[in-house]
Structures are given as C-alpha cells and as structure tokens.
Specification:
This protein has 8 helices and 7 strands. With 283 residues, the chain is α/β, with parallel strands linked by helices. The chain has a single domain, classed as Rossmann fold (3-Layer(aba) Sandwich). It starts with 7 loop residues before the first strand and ends in a 10-residue tail after the last helix. The structure holds nicotinamide-adenine-dinucleotide (NAD). The site of nicotinamide-adenine-dinucleotide has 33 residues, from α1. This is SDR family NAD(P)-dependent oxidoreductase.
Length: 283
C-alpha cells in the first residue's frame, strides 16, 4: 500500500501511546480516521489533535476484546467512509506476574485483548478488503516479547508470540489467495507509552476480585517492574513515520530494538541445538 490520501484507517487503542502516534501519522498522510479505545474520551482527544492537522474522522469508545464490539466498529467504519484500507490492531495491555501467582483471569483478559481482538479485526476486515480489491494493509502490534520469553510476563509473551504467528499465517494465506493485502507485525522493545497504566483499562468482566494476589508483595513488585521498564523505554518520537514507511515498503517484520537481536537468535539456536532455556540468556 503506497497511497494513503483519502483512504480509511481503523486504529485500535488510538487514545494513547503508539495508537495516538499512528493516528497522527495517518492524519499527516490525509487518511480518514476511525479511532477506537476503551478509555472514555481518549480516542476523541487523539481525533481532536488529528482534526487540527486537517483530518476527517470518528472516535469510538469500545472494548475491542469483545467480538461484537469489533463487528460494530467495522460496520460504523464502512457506513461512515465506505472502505477500510488500513487496519492497525494495536490495543493491548501488559500484566506481569509469575505463572503460578498471576490470577488466571488476567491470562483470559490478556488473551482476549492482545490476541483475540487482532483475530476479530482480521476476521471482519479481510473479507471487506478482499472485496475492495485495492491495495490494503494490516499492521498487528506484537512486541519483542513475541520473539523471546522475557521473565515474569507469561501472558504477554504467549499472546505476543501468538500475534506474530497469526500474522505470519495471515501473510501466507493471503499470498496463496493472491490477495492485494499486505501484513506487518510490529515487534518493539520497551517504549515510553502509558502501557504501565493497563490496570486502568481493565474491562468490568475482569475486574479485580478478592484474589489475594492483588494485595500481595509479588503484585507490588510486578507493577513496579513494568512501571520501570516503560518509563525508561525509548522515546516514542518518529514511531508513526517508521510504521508507515514499513507499510509502504511491504515490510513484514518490524523490529526496532537491535539490542534484542542476540537474544532472538540465541533462542532459535538453543531450540535447534536442544539447549534448555536458561536465565543466563538475560545477562
Ligand atoms: N510500550 C511498549 O514498551 C511496548 C512494547 C512492545 C509492544 N507494545 C504494544 O503496543 C501496543 C500499544 O501499547 P502502548 O505501549 O502504546 O500502550 P498504551 O497503554 O499507551 O496504549 C494502549 C491503548 O490500548 C487501549 N486499550 C487497552 N485495552 C483496550 C480494549 N479492551 N479495547 C480498546 N482499547 C484498549 C488503552 O486504553 C490504550 O489507549 C500494545 O499492543 C502493546 O502490547 C508496547
């Protein structure tokens, strides 16, 4: 996909962080915007900034971890603008905690938003793009956690690995179908966003219950560690431009933190040589 002007971008998690940056870059490229976020008012705030740049768009407050909401989002996008040319499946959360301590409801929450929302998006939008026949693109936001097994973040690692694999499968299936749809999977390391505020985006059906984990020292340590990783991450500037350049160049894997390359390669080498996972990998 090389022409963006006048075409429609649907961006989930557009109220903060990466999503807001993608929306601004789409606005710069004169796209029509459908911005979606669970946090009330946040997609509207991004849209206001985009409108100041001359963009046309709508903002929706939806929880995209629910299939019916994704269906509704897609219907509204088509009813409003007639096409969907770019889908950025970006909304996500990160909860950390050891596998035997983190409540299983946090696994279900993470699977629903980090993985299922992307599957719902592709399931709804790809048939529309196929029918359009024009060059289209889908970006699934995964993470470098989709290429390695970082300690303490089981659900995040699992869903991000799954996001990479569903993206790869989509790419292959679309090639076999000779479709005019490009796919990219974005796998950044830590970047300064609001990801450490994921707790505030917890849907009602996963609300904190009386599980003792939420008042434990382990929980406190997990929250502090994610705060530290995100606050000391790389600055977010130029992320929007970088992703749109990757779309133009039909780049599938978008890896932006070469510091992890040795870990990624080491993991594959260990698998091939039968070497066990080892904490010394992380230095
Ligand atoms: N920041 C990082 O270091 C980093 C690294 C790798 C990958 N990522 C990924 O980038 C993506 C964007 O995260 P970010 O870092 O910009 O964080 P962020 O918290 O700033 O943005 C995520 C947005 O998604 C929204 N969201 C959360 N749950 C939602 C739901 N159920 N429905 C709709 N919207 C929902 C949030 O309200 C928020 O606006 C995520 O998928 C995240 O896993 C982030």
């Amino acid at each position: 996909m090389k022409d963006f002007k006048g075409r429609t971008a649907v961006i989930t998690g557009a109220g903060n962080g990466f999503g807001a940056e993608f929306a601004k870059e789409a606005a710069r490229r004169e796209m029509k915007l459908v911005l979606v976020d669970i946090e009330p008012g946040s997609a509207e705030k991004t849209l206001t900034s985009c409108k100041k740049m001359g963009a046309e768009g709508i903002a929706l407050t939806y929880d995209v971890s629910l299939e019916e909401n994704v269906q509704e989002m897609v219907k509204i996008a088509i009813d409003t603008f007639g096409t969907i040319d770019l889908l950025i499946n970006n909304a996500g959360i990160c909860m950390s905690g050891r596998i035997w301590e983190l409540p299983t409801q946090d696994w279900r929450w993470t699977v629903d938003i980090n993985l299922m929302s992307q599957i719902y998006g592709m399931h709804e939008v790809i048939p529309i793009m196929l029918k359009q026949g024009t060059p289209c693109h889908i970006v699934n936001v995964a993470s470098v956690a989709g290429t390695i097994a970082y300690p303490n973040t089981g659900p995040y690692n699992a869903t991000k690995h799954a996001a990479v694999l569903t993206s790869e499968t989509a790419q292959i299936d679309l090639q076999l179908a000779q479709a005019n749809i490009g796919i990219s999977v974005y796998c950044p390391g830590f970047v300064q966003t609001t990801l450490h505020h994921s707790q505030e985006r917890r849907p009602e059906r996963f609300k904190i219950n009386d599980d003792p984990y939420y008042s434990s020292e382990s929980y406190k340590v997990a929250i502090e560690s994610i705060n530290q990783f995100i606050e000391t991450g790389t600055p977010i500037d130029s992320v929007g431009m970088l992703i749109f350049q990757a779309i133009e160049e039909e780049q599938f894997y978008i890896l932006t933190h070469p510091i992890y390359n040795a870990l990624i390669g080491g993991r594959i080498q260990d698998m091939l040589s039968g070497k066990n996972p080892d904490i010394t990998r992380f230095g």
